[in-house]
Specification:
The complex is a heterodimer. Chain A has 13 helices and 25 strands. Chain A has helices at about 5-15, 40-55, 120-130, 240-245, 270-290, 315-320, 365-375, 385-405, 460, 465-480, 495-510, 520-530, 535-550, and strands at about 30-35, 55-65, 70-80, 85-95, 100-110, 135, 140-145, 155-165, 170-175, 185-190, 195-200, 205-215, 215-220, 230-235, 260, 265, 300-305, 330-335, 340, 355, 420, 425, 435, 480, 490. Chain B contains one helix and eleven strands. In chain B, strands 1-4-5-6-7-9-10-11 form an eight-stranded antiparallel beta barrel. Classes of the chains: A alpha+beta, B mainly beta.
């Protein structure tokens, strides 16, 4: 029997070199590889080359590093006489100078007959008989070498047919011995803690909550979307968030920090909307642009809610001063991936002539803040002056686009429009809902034309003010119309809003740099439209006209 | 249990069963003097036959499924295919023209289910995902027991029997309890992965009618060919949903009918 792989692996593990001739058979065991030193990675480079040449390692994938430029990650699968060894893999990280690390596990001492005596058809029948009503899905079964012990020194190997069986409530991965026909391993491949509950949002609307069952309760940890999306309930303790964020976040999160509900029928509107709308925002970016989260690599997002209690407003103001108002009437993004939502003001308090509800209750607000994360991971527009106004405008644009994606168009509560924050900032002495308008920025005191832009130093050089100019250009590119100063724009129409959204997204995430100004944004969005819709010049034309209408040329 | 449309055949069967003794006596006694079977032959016959169902039968289901905090639907349409089986009967001849038969037949059939479902979305209310698929080889075990009156006719070595009467069915049907599917983020579509099945039993009453032609090959043994039709239906409960199961159908049989020898006096 060919013992080449066990021998070579044993030699590799013990640093004896692979071409030094026969050696005693290695006992069956798993070798955990964690090579990070220059010497170790150099040795592993040679071993990987030799193992690959012998066919004992096979390249599974090669991917560029999405977080550190210039790095490549190559994943290798261990193979025994042509049969993959289940769980046997190495991952090598390289840059232009060579290998940086090698991690993984390789199995040694495999000595089995690699040709099955149990036919694939018989294996299929066995697999489907393990669980009543179970069906193979996908239909393929594959042959693997199955290591059979978690204890490295007491390991055996069997040749096994592996298949996934769906039972309706579970997805079982089952291994059938390819010689004896016995079931060797049967485990669930489905996160059994996944749970979907009901929730009632800030505005009393029903929603589904993707959460995690933990013991007898449910936690606001989304178990269905790819990234970690968690909502943490500070239970009115304004100091708790600092103790979580500052020392060693996220390891400082305690299980009791997660928003929880005993019956999976969630009634805290702030928790519900922060959690659900974070998921919606992820969904929008994925479905519209194929983007996977803030950094396009599923970086975690943790939302903090209930940092204070509304009824504690007076006491908190006395204790902490006006700074505490950020936890009442603001929502903000902390890089990377932390969202903080204000709870709003208790009646009858108003601010700026408006009543303020929990900030998590507005989908466009959630989308706006999370988009700041996207900006940080892409153009990283400097939060001052024109770049800062572009930063704010991109958040408004994406927040509004998310609203249009998930909500019906209209002017009522939880309806999509070109206002920002209209669902949580409602008219009192100030007659309008919301805090900004993309359709009519001047109604909120913001400029709608470059000629009347704010040039002072307040608000970071007018980041929340001059965003109105860019926002209005976005609005005109979609809806068209006549600018207040007379310029006519032929928009693509609401039904084609996706075209403008994509052009702006592409420009802001792929073409702009931290110091980009309005003129650069104009050029970038026109270019993006031309690239995306080469056979539909109307898109670029709409954007060109829109920028011209707001005085950006 | 109400079986629409079975009244006439059952009435015919009951008529044949209960009316036949008097008819026999009135018209054609087996023996003009004693009413007994011809010398050397018993009144009892045994039938053994290979049977084959003809055609298919169908039934359907409509269920509510609870997923992701919301109700969805699972509809199934089952077509039960033909299958070979076996039949046995015991017949007591009241006269040359009339008899009573107790029969049993067993079939191991397979059904194919066609399913369509609306499965709730994990993230949104009122945005169900549609899925459809087919699952073959679902078991449908069927046994039928009948008590029929037999009208007998004879011409030379040829026999002609007409029977009819009530029937009792025992059906074990494998049906869908849930759907197996796979979905991946963003969960807007599903891939059909089959069903999670459950096997349910139902015992409906119905009727059986048949026409049999036999050819004597010896004085005690005949080769018989029979056409038969049985029907019954009953409900099974799957997760609170009623599914009406249809049993029976047309069958063709071929086999033997054996007249048991009568014991000789003093033997």
């Amino acid at each position: 029997m060919n013992r080449a792989l066990p021998v070579s692996l044993a030699l590799a593990v013990f640093g004896m070199g692979m071409m030094q001739g026969p050696a005693p058979d290695a006992p069956p065991r798993m070798n955990a590889v964690a090579a990070t030193s220059r010497t170790a990675v150099s040795e592993w480079d040679q071993r990987i080359a030799a193992l690959s040449t012998r066919g004992d390692l096979r390249v599974l994938s090669t991917r560029e590093d999405t977080m550190l430029a210039g790095r490549i990650h190559t994943r290798y699968a261990q193979v025994y006489k042509g049969v993959p060894v289940w769980g046997g893999e190495l991952v090598r990280q390289e840059d232009t100078a060579g290998t940086l690390t090698v991690f993984g596990n390789l199995y040694e001492g495999i000595d089995i007959e690699p040709r099955p005596t149990l036919s694939e058809a018989a294996a299929r029948r066995t697999l489907e008989a393990v669980h009543q009503g179970g069906r193979l899905f996908p239909a393929e079964v594959d042959l693997v070498v199955l290591p059979l012990s978690a204890e490295a020194e007491a390991m055996t190997f069997v040749l096994a047919w592996r298949g996934q069986i769906l039972t309706g409530t579970d997805a079982r991965v089952i291994f059938v011995d390819a010689h004896s026909g016995a079931v060797r391993l049967d485990y669930t491949d489905r996160d059994t803690q996944t749970a979907v509950g009901k929730g009632t949002g800030v505005l009393g609307d029903p929603k589904k909550m993707s959460v995690t069952g933990v013991g007898a309760t449910f936690q606001a940890q989304d178990a269905l979307r790819p990234p970690t999306l968690q909502t943490l309930d500070m239970k009115g303790d304004p100091l708790r968030i600092e103790s979580i964020l500052i020392p060693a976040f996220p390891n400082t999160i305690r299980p009791t920090d997660y928003a929880a509900d005993a019956d999976n029928d969630w009634t805290d509107g702030g928790v519900v909307d922060a959690h659900v709308y974070t998921g919606y925002t992820y969904d929008y970016y994925f479905k519209r642009f194929g983007r996977r989260g803030l950094n396009d690599a599923n970086t975690p997002v943790r939302s903090f809610v209930n940092l204070v209690k509304r009824e504690d407003l007076a006491r908190n103001l006395a204790l902490y001063g006006d700074d505490i108002l950020d936890y009442y009437v603001n929502a903000f993004y902390l890089h990377p991936g932390v969202m903080v939502y204000g709870v709003g003001l208790p009646p009858p308090f108003t601010l700026g002539g408006q009543r303020w509800n929990n900030f998590a209750g507005a989908l466009d607000v959630v989308g706006h803040e999370l988009t700041h994360g996207v900006t940080r991971f892409t153009s990283n527009l400097i939060y001052q002056n024109e770049p800062g106004a572009l930063n704010e405008a991109f958040s408004d644009i994406m927040g509004t686009s998310i609203e249009f994606y998930f909500q019906p168009a209209g002017s009522g509560s939880m309806q999509a429009d070109y206002l920002a924050g209209e669902d949580i900032a409602t008219a009192a002495s100030f007659p309008l809902n919301g805090i900004r308008s993309m359709q009519n920025p001047t109604a909120y005191g913001d400029p709608d034309h470059y000629s009347v832009r704010y040039t002072g130093t307040q608000d970071g050089g007018g980041v929340h003010i001059n965003s109105g100019i860019v926002n209005h250009a976005f609005y005109l590119a979609i809806e068209g119309g006549i600018h207040r100063l007379g310029a006519r724009v032929t928009g693509v129409g609401a039904a084609n809003r996706e075209q403008i959204e994509k052009a702006f997204y592409r420009a802001f995430t792929a073409f702009l740099v931290p110091s980009s100004n309005f003129a650069a944004a104009r050029a970038a969005t026109i270019r993006a439209a031309t690239e995306l819709y080469p056979s539909n010049p109307a898109v670029a034309a709409a954007i060109t006209q829109a920028w011209a209408a707001v005085g950006v040329n | 249990m109400k079986n629409p449309g079975t009244g006439m055949p059952i009435a015919l069967g009951l008529f044949l069963i209960f009316a036949s003794p008097s008819l026999a006596q009135d018209r054609q006694p087996v023996s003009s003097s004693t009413g007994q079977a011809p010398r050397g032959k018993s009144r009892i016959e045994v039938g053994l036959a290979f049977a084959q169902t003809i055609g298919t039968s169908t039934f359907s289901s409509s269920q509510t499924i609870r997923e992701y905090a919301e109700d969805g639907t699972l509809n199934g349409s089952y077509e039960v295919g033909g299958a070979p089986g076996g039949a046995f009967d015991l017949q007591y001849n009241l006269s040359e023209k009339f008899g009573v038969r107790v029969g049993a037949e067993v079939f191991s059939r397979k059904s194919t289910g066609t399913f369509d479902a609306k499965v709730p979305h994990p993230f949104f209310f009122s945005r169900p995902r549609s899925i459809s698929g087919t699952q073959a080889d679902l078991d449908f075990q069927e046994a039928a027991f009948s008590l029929t009156g037999v009208l007998r006719g004879r011409s030379g070595k040829w026999n002609l029997n007409l029977e009819g009467g009530p029937a009792y069915f025992s059906v074990e049907a494998t049906v869908a309890e849930k759907l197996s599917y796979s979905d991946v983020y963003p969960y807007d579509t599903l891939a059909f992965g089959g069903i999670v099945s459950t096997t349910k039993k139902v015992n409906p009453f119905g009727f059986a009618v048949g026409l049999e032609i036999g050819r004597e090959i010896t004085s005690a043994v005949s080769v018989v060919v029979q056409g038969r039709f049985t029907q019954g239906s009953g409900d099974i409960d799957v997760n609170g949903a009623k599914i009406k199961i249809k049993a029976g159908g047309a069958r063709a049989r071929i086999g033997f009918r054996i007249v048991l020898a009568r014991k000789k006096a003093g033997a």
